[in-house]
# Entry
Amino acid sequence: MINLKYLLSPCILVLLGTPILAGDPRPPQINLSFLAEPAPIVQYGSVRLFYEMLITNFSKDQYVLNSIETKAGDTKSNFEGAALAAMMSYLGASESAAKHTDRVIEGGRSVVIFFMLDLGKDQTPNTIEHVLHVLGDQGGAHDVVPAPLMVSNDNPIVVAAPLRGTWIAGDSVNNRPDAAHRRAILIEDGRAWLAQRFAIDWVQYQTIDGVRTTWKGAEDRNDSYFCYGQPIYSVAAGKVVAMADGLPENVPHSGKYAISIGADNAAGNHVVVEIAPHRYVLYAHMRPGTVRVKAGDEVQIGEILGLVGNTGSSTEPHLHMHIDDQPSFLAGNGVPYEFAQGEASGPVEANVSSPDAISFGPIGPQSRFTNDYPADNALVTFK
# Structure
């Protein structure tokens, strides 16, 4: 019998039957994995890759994630300091994010790193290379080099407009620490999913008494909101695979929901349409009694599915839309998509995911686009 205590230590793991190669004598005991293969998206005219790395510290020691280098084709990036800290989300952390600006990964803890690589006009690479520069708790410096991450060769699916008129593309994919959709990792059947990676909350605003606002009149009435009751259009032809109607509406900005929210009703009154193999469009939070289709129906591009409402996990009227690879609001992998045409501004500062009234910063001019996904909170016009 081999005495395992001579093979295992808190800092070194030697696998039986595996030759010992020259290298780091005390490699950091951290495990790296990725939630999904990234796929390219054209956002505001630039090719980008959004993906997530999960790091778990298997030791009792703590490590500092000093920096991460990436290489995607000709695009090289280096993430360090405050910028890297803002990309990190500690699993199960109840304390404020400010506690983790030191980028420490304590023993037994896990952290998700949210990446956004801007490739500009470059071609999408086949792989992404990473080098993690890690500091041990005794001051040792280590380089962790995982196998290259494969990049999906799937092109974004191009769809038509879900709405008509001028809208704010609320919380469209971005890499800020407060990005609600981008960081909505949920677990089902023992797997981590990020169905809302490319989700958008569509709202409308007007300028009232010099202030941009999403409603006029009583704040607690759904019909005070400019987008309330607007028709929702199918962005592509397909088959309805799921729907719900009859759920009650929430009182806007009341701090509570009309019903207890769970995985089965977070989308409120909604429609899910399969538009291609492993491509499902979710239209969520519809007004009660307005869903016009049922499971099994074939729908055409531009067909009205229902009206904008405020049901499910929603704090004011809006349309939540995303596309993922499973017919589920929560359990799926969000995939890139682009809108065929329209007009859009650049990014806009706005707290669309706030449970309180939405505020908007300056909004720049719009320009025409083709096959593009809107910048964060961009002003978008569909005709």
Notes: Residues 157-382 form a domain with the Glucose Permease (Domain IIA) fold (CATH 2.70.70.10).
